[in-house]
Amino acid sequence: MSEQSSHKTWRTKLHEIIYEADTPAGKLFDIILLIAILASILLVMLESIASFDEKYHTILNISEWVITILFSIEYIVRIISVNKPLKYILSFYGIIDLLSTIPKYISLFLAGTHALVALRALRLLRVFRILKLARYLGASNQLANAIKASRAKIAVFLFAVLIAAVIFGTIMYLVEGEEHGFSNIPKSVYWCIVTLTTVGFGDIAPETPLGQFIATLIMILGYGIIAVPTGIVSAEYTKASGDKEGKYSDEEHEHIKDLQLNTQCCVNCLAETHQDGAEFCHKCGCKLHHD
Amino acid sequence: MSEQSSHKTWRTKLHEIIYEADTPAGKLFDIILLIAILASILLVMLESIASFDEKYHTILNISEWVITILFSIEYIVRIISVNKPLKYILSFYGIIDLLSTIPKYISLFLAGTHALVALRALRLLRVFRILKLARYLGASNQLANAIKASRAKIAVFLFAVLIAAVIFGTIMYLVEGEEHGFSNIPKSVYWCIVTLTTVGFGDIAPETPLGQFIATLIMILGYGIIAVPTGIVSAEYTKASGDKEGKYSDEEHEHIKDLQLNTQCCVNCLAETHQDGAEFCHKCGCKLHHD
Amino acid sequence: MSEQSSHKTWRTKLHEIIYEADTPAGKLFDIILLIAILASILLVMLESIASFDEKYHTILNISEWVITILFSIEYIVRIISVNKPLKYILSFYGIIDLLSTIPKYISLFLAGTHALVALRALRLLRVFRILKLARYLGASNQLANAIKASRAKIAVFLFAVLIAAVIFGTIMYLVEGEEHGFSNIPKSVYWCIVTLTTVGFGDIAPETPLGQFIATLIMILGYGIIAVPTGIVSAEYTKASGDKEGKYSDEEHEHIKDLQLNTQCCVNCLAETHQDGAEFCHKCGCKLHHD
Amino acid sequence: MSEQSSHKTWRTKLHEIIYEADTPAGKLFDIILLIAILASILLVMLESIASFDEKYHTILNISEWVITILFSIEYIVRIISVNKPLKYILSFYGIIDLLSTIPKYISLFLAGTHALVALRALRLLRVFRILKLARYLGASNQLANAIKASRAKIAVFLFAVLIAAVIFGTIMYLVEGEEHGFSNIPKSVYWCIVTLTTVGFGDIAPETPLGQFIATLIMILGYGIIAVPTGIVSAEYTKASGDKEGKYSDEEHEHIKDLQLNTQCCVNCLAETHQDGAEFCHKCGCKLHHD
User: Fold this and answer.
1) What is the CATH number of domain C3-132?
2) ipTM of the predicted structure?
3) Cys-Cys link to D197, which of B190, C223, C232, D258 (CB 3.0-4.6 A)?
4) What is the pTM of this model?
């Protein structure tokens, strides 16, 4: 696009490949990373199947080490290629990227038979690798806005549901009692939420006629209130998409689209959502790179 | 705001702290009360867990007495600080505030081994403390209006669902019979509501081919009608939020916001939702206090 | 309202009491009938509880005979008080009114121990008494219109759901097989609908990893498509309430309200929804009675 | 409509009968085909019921051969009556039409006791006959458009649900462990989707207090997010039906209706949705036939 692309440093190029997806190299890197993340999730899953782990333990272990080392290299390169590494390290994705590599290293020192339970918790952290996927979901701003706008109302609503669950849970504990599985109030509240949300596992179920009658009331209540969050999101979403169409002119509309498609990311401050023809970062004034 | 705040009586000050949340002292009181209510709910829950109650019975009992006495003091102070105590005592929150303290006192006289079952019912009443929480949820008027507007329609709808449940429940009782768990019509109706609301515990499930076929019809019916209350609330909510935006000008809109943020409460008649600069109660003409 | 009310015949008066609810006598009759219907439903329910039926068999039996005879008298009076009795007998409510009385009489001739199973089917018919309730639900036209407007689309949708259920049901039958409860395709299709509608009894559940994977797909599909009928009804309902407000002027609107409140019913042809000041039936030209 | 209908060839006539439903013969053919497809599905279902298959094996087998041969003839006639047979063979319905006949023929060569498992898979394919039904559902374009418009957003949403299921599934695996049925991560993820979609089989259920607490969070999350796809479809559908009414004039509206009712299908390229008075195919210019 301009002449400065010729005298780009290797760091700028690395930044472009790793953080952006506009160039062919950047796109390829993102796709490979996506496959690696999915493969690592699959490995964790397969390892958890006892019969499979017994047979292929060595292969699974080696594959995991390979992916862990690749993720570690990626993490280091990400730190190197930004001007303010601390900003990346302390960012949401920086922490997740770190959490997705260290558990495997810690498992080296905490190995042995006793560390098995500790390893379980470490495994848990490794799953956060998956959150990397979210980065590739792209912007579905309209949906996000609808959820954000109805967040407060849904919180109020969920709080009301929780109060109802506590009250009905206590009533059911008194009515059904320990002998029918409602052994304490927390368990009764758990059952009540299972019922209100229409999940209905059936691991606990009322057996006395009065208990079944109250359960009927809870279910009809749950059925009635399932309508509320749906109605809120639906209305907010209709409004959000209506506003968008009404407020912006065609020119502005196109501009919004460009913003969403552009994956440029400032080398200095990691700010995103730059305008398409922008030469400088809108947040720190640092020069952006073009091809 | 004006000079009369200097010669406020202690009663006016108490009223301001307890009933309103505009002053720092009032805010602090509300937060402490909220924590106390949550703690008391937690205590009731922990007490219901047999293994926990055995170990820490004395601590739980003492903690509950502390909270009960605190709630009693709060109740008395609330009565003292209003001009018309009877109005508070007979109000919704007045009754709940009383119900959340007396069961513990009654348990003193009704103690003994035989009163155990009675105590259960008393415990139930103590849970009404939770309803105090509702006071702190604030006004989500728009949501409340949408629900209020669709209340009648949802009632008609729920009535139709109940009729369907009774008819299908009787049919299932005749088809499946006692040997498959459908031991009487009320139980069959209970199962039918469990199915129509898509809860599906599975404690009772049809076993004959004909019964399973009818169950399929009930489920598809339930699936189809789950759409109705959702559609009603959704439409009413869209209308409610549309009306609000259309009907009020910007100035009025701001005024509405102020009303919601203002927690002033008349000393005489407990009326709420006063205008921000109001000097007198809009209901009884009694002077409001300002800082 | 006019002078002809003075020389009303007893038949016209009966018609007014039984078919209409505008006069105090008519209202009283409807309320008594409603209570009688609810009582008869309660009786059928109580009779089905074995332990209850044993104890109070005689009382239940007598009560049922009383209600059956009352319903029979009501049925005969309804026939007498109309000009064209056949029109009533062959109408929807005429058939239901008959079906809610005859089973008890038939049980006299078919009594004995062998007739028990036959009686079950007769009981089933007696439940249709409940449908009488529908008459008292009044007009919730807006809701009815929304459902009517989306009826065709929901039918197409439900048909698509059925096809999906048949295909996935067959796949699950092949994958899971008889040993895991999927003993034949109809049962498998039943399970599939249980899953698609998010009821999930758990009486049959996939046990093979492949079966659980396909079940996951079915559930996500069910979760995704639960949105469709809801969206349709919601949109149609919004449109219906929007149209109503837009199309009719205030005057017309009031007129519609009157129509709904008026319960006049032609003595000759049983036509309903007459205008408030109407002197003659809009369908057969027969004179309407006023007070 | 014009004079060329008199010198139609038999091939054009066949095409008209088989592919279109405008003539009485075409309508009759479609109805017979629909009944044949439904009968064949019923046969497959009945065959899968062991007790039924034992009794009526011969009748079921003969009936299936009759239907298979009829479908084969139909398939051949369909190929003959089009100008470009390959286009039909490779089309969606062409492949389904083939798949619904060959499994029965292959079962001849692969018969024997060992082929039983293979036959199962063949049976699976035979079910694709059902997809033929879709052809007769007609155009519910508005609904299809709403789903198409919200497809991308629902995909993003479902992807987010899957990530949540993987994370929560792993947490539940670590918390509950093998002894409570959460024997490996894939199974745990399966349970998590069962819970998030509010299906709730209950074949696996959390038993530890911590597990039940996390399950509660998952259920409330599931309850909250059930609103999102519903809101999207609802909003898109409202927009779709709004656009349709706004954009098109009455004249155009009528024209759209005609397009939907017309079942003309080009003899040459199988293109559909021709205008009512059209003489030539809008895609390949080939002459259309009229009566």
Assistant:
1) 1.20.120
2) 0.76
3) C223
4) 0.79
